[in-house]
Amino acid sequence: KYTGPSFEETMQTRKEYLTPALLTYYKNPIMIVDGKQQYLFDHEGNRYLDMFAGIVTVSVGHCHPTVTKAAIDQMNRLQHTTTIYLHPVIGEFGKKLAETFPKESNLKVVYFVNSGSEANDLAVMMARAYTGNFDFISLRNGYHGASGNSASLTALHTWKYPVPSDFGIKHTLNPDPYRGPFKSSDPEAGKKYAWHLKNLIEHSSPGAVAGFIAESIQGIGGTVELADGFLKEAYDIIRAHGGLCIADEVQTGFGRTGTNFWGFQNYGVTPDIVTMAKGIGNGAPLAAVVTTPEIAKTLSKRIHFNTYGGNPVSCAMGSAVLDVIRDEKIQQNAHDVGSIIKDGLNDLKKKYKVIGDVRGHGLMLGVELVRDHETLEPANTETAHVFEKAKEMGVLVGKGGLYGNCLRIKPPMCVTKEDAKFFLDVMDRSLASL
Ligand code: PMP
Q1: How far is CA 252 from CA 74, 134, 181, in A?
Q2: pTM of this prediction exceeds 0.90
Q3: Alpha carbon distance 290, 306 (integer Å)
Q4: What is the helix (H) or strand (E) element at residue 98, kind and residue range?
Q5: 280 Cβ inside 6 Å of ligand 1
Q6: Does the beta carbon of 223 sit less than 6 angstroms from any atom of ligand 1?
Q7: Using one digit for the tens of pLDDT, what is the confidence trace for 111-132?
Q8: Best mutation site among 278, 308, 364 for ligand 1, i.e. most ligand atoms within 8 A of its Cβ?
Q9: Ligand 1 contacts CB of residue 250 (under 6 A)
Q10: Disulfide-capable partner of 246 in 273, 283, 394, 396 (CB 3.0 to 4.6 Å)?
Q11: Where does the pLDDT of residue 411 fall: very low under 50, low under 70, confident under 90, or very high at 90 and above?
Q12: 116 CA to centre of ligand 1 in angstroms
């Protein structure tokens, strides 16, 4: 039973002492005080099925006992010194992480940092230092973080402040086969979007770039899958212009897409740099940049250091997460339960006209609501209604997309078939109440 500060006190402290920019996600906000695997509990003991996992962060389950034990054991032994001394767990975790990449990719050198934003900032710096080029390209509608370079890579006006962006960062047309100008019905769509990328390089850079970054499936942008064939074409174009290709796997990694451990593997490409965060630590403030030995060498020309990057507690947790993913066949579960949910959502699409698109892979799913299938007018108030109704019935989902009209379904990957059934039933009832 929860015995801490009351809901009202907590709300008052938050209003008075914390940034006013904080989102409270529901009309009647909830206070979450306990978590167990795929469930969350509020201060009154109400249980919620968590279909958003702390924004796609809790990969193997809230308070997973293996991860918790790893943290506690390490905390009791040694909490911190930094990487100026040797510590076995950091290298062991780095090795295990490197082993998750395809051998032929040679992606095996790991830099540990603390957040996805930091990982992307580092990737940009690394690509610039390695190539000697400056210009950088990301996709419109992409989200890559909120600090320095990463905030500039992010291309959603809702996240941008009127302050200068990083010079040299450009955003190409988003290869969105649902909302973009070239639709999924067009077999040449991927190529057409790639043409825009090449055109951007030719007209707004010296004809050479440092790199290109993309999420394998856009998360905050509303679970947008890139047009077929785009990524492969894009990687070829970037490399032909001297740049490195970076996969932002902050949301799509660690088996979430079900078919592969890394999202990029679903699209037949091999990046030069991979950034990851969130699911890597199941909630620990941990992130990483993985690259090839050759690219990694560039940063040894100067000192590169990060106080908490590679701290033993976060690394012990990250290492335990990899063990759980393997031992509990988490990726297979993401595939199996994700397929049931996606099929169920497609059935609901036949029943409710407001569903414009169901997309994603494994447990990285999204539903876009529209008022008109031709104009694609965003059904944002309808989305907010479904989102609130689901909460009332004990299911927490995410909301996203530039227009706030996408439901994001990305639960801890230990969700079961029974949870999927309950979730679909709640979705059905929430949509019926529109
Ligand atoms: N990349 C992606 C794809 C993300 O979703 C996020 C966070 N939502 C980030 C980077 C930034 O991560 P962080 O919030 O840990 O800085």
Answers
A1: 28, 27, 25
A2: yes
A3: 15
A4: helix 88-98
A5: no
A6: no
A7: 999 999 999 999 999 999 999 9
A8: 278
A9: yes
A10: 273
A11: very high
A12: 5
Q: Which residue has the tokens 């490399």?
A: 239
To test the pocket of ligand 1, the residue of 57, 58, 114, 117 to mutate (highest count of ligand atoms within 8 Å of its CB) is: 117
| Span from the CA of 349 to the centroid of ligand 1 (angstroms) | 29
Paired tokens of 236 = 């070829």
Structure tokens at 170: 């450009």
Intrachain domains 7-60+329-432 and 67-327 with the same fold: no
- Report phi then psi at 364, rounded to 5: -125, 75
Strands (E), 216-297: 217-218, 224-225, 244-248, 273-276, 287-291
Strand partners, 139: 172
- CA–CA dist 196, 237 (Å, integer): 11
Burial of 376 (0-12, 13-18, 19+ CB in 10 A): middle
Which residue from 122, 139, 143 has its CB within 8 A of the most atoms of ligand 1, so it is best to mutate? 143
Nearest CA to ligand 1 atom 13: 116
Q: What is the pLDDT of residue 24?
A: 84
CATH 3.40.640.10 fits 67-327, yes or no: yes
* DSSP state for residue 321 in the 8-state scheme: H
- Report helix, strand or coil for 243: coil
Question: 210 CA to middle of ligand 1, Å?
Answer: 21
Residue pair 233/303 in contact (Cβ under 8 Å)? The answer is: no
First to last CA, the chain: 35
Interval 317-370: pLDDT, tens: 999 999 999 999 999 999 999 999 999 999 999 999 999 999 999 999 999 999
Over residues 216-228, the pLDDT tens digits come to 999 999 999 999 9
- Could you confirm whether domain 7-60+329-432 is CATH 3.90.1150.10? yes
